[in-house]
């Protein structure tokens, strides 16, 4: 017994006629009749009572019809999937550091969700090394990292934008450059953060003591600590752009030939789903405007 046999059976019931069902399904009447015979042979009992020239659905046929309807509805859904594979849907797991998630991805996410509401986005915030591991083991579909560009084993990297970075100082800081200021702590991002290592090197190069340390994974917390004159830090300029503009904070731009870059990463063997392809496309378009 096959789906086509059940489709014929359903059509006969709904049309009330073998002849009409054959016309709608574009079968010869003999084919329709043979389809019903296959069903009856499978169950070992008739589904229609043949009363003279009339064919009437019997009790067993009614039971079969009720159970066939959801089965064929599911079959239609499966067939329809062929036409939907190009439409973004399903789940998309994206990793990004907090600063990128808040200040670069927010408008991209807003546009993406307005275009593709059927996609369930799962956003994961962690350090760049941790997210590389999640890409390699398949826990993430893609990541938007903020790091220096490097050769990536098993991963494909597409650089998008060199993110301006700066040393950030409280408005009340006693100098316009980094100095040893006992009253100010060094505000570090979490261990493993790409630009924490750069900040540590900057402090070392300037012989700044880092004995008074506060560490937190949140750039928003660091920004509040800067506004409260608690310490100094090293952040993407976009995180404090508003506060620099209104004079509540001040900064020292970071100049380098090896910049921190917003970049898309995914596993080299990862299938690029329509949902993932569209997110990457919108992100690339947005990155053009960041400069």
Can you offer a commentary on this structure?
With 291 residues, this protein is α/β, with parallel strands linked by helices. The protein has helices spanning 3-15, 18-25, 29-43, 59-84, 98-103, 105-115, 128-136, 194-205, 219-227, 241-245, 274-290; strands spanning 48-51, 54-57, 90-95, 119-124, 142-147, 155-162, 165-170, 185-188, 213-215, 231-236, 249-253, 261-267. It folds into three domains: 3-84, Arc Repressor Mutant, subunit A, CATH 1.10.10.10; 90-163 and 260-290, D-Maltodextrin-Binding Protein, domain 2 (3-Layer(aba) Sandwich), CATH 3.40.190.10; 165-253, 3-Layer(aba) Sandwich (D-Maltodextrin-Binding Protein, domain 2). Helix content is 45%, strand content 22%. The longest helix has 26 residues, at 59-84. It starts with a helix and ends with a helix.
Topology readout:
Elements: H1 3-15, H2 18-25, H3 29-43, E1 48-51, E2 54-57, H4 59-84, E3 90-95, H5 98-103, H6 105-115, E4 119-124, H7 128-136, E5 142-147, E6 155-162, E7 165-170, E8 185-188, H8 194-205, E9 213-215, H9 219-227, E10 231-236, H10 241-245, E11 249-253, E12 261-267, H11 274-290
Parallel strand pairs: 3-4, 3-5, 8-9, 8-10
Antiparallel strand pairs: 1-2, 5-12, 6-12, 7-10, 7-11
Helix pairs in contact: 1-2, 1-3, 1-4, 2-3, 6-11
Domain HTH lysR-type: 1-58
Protein name: Transcriptional regulator, LysR family
GO molecular function, one term: transcription cis-regulatory region binding
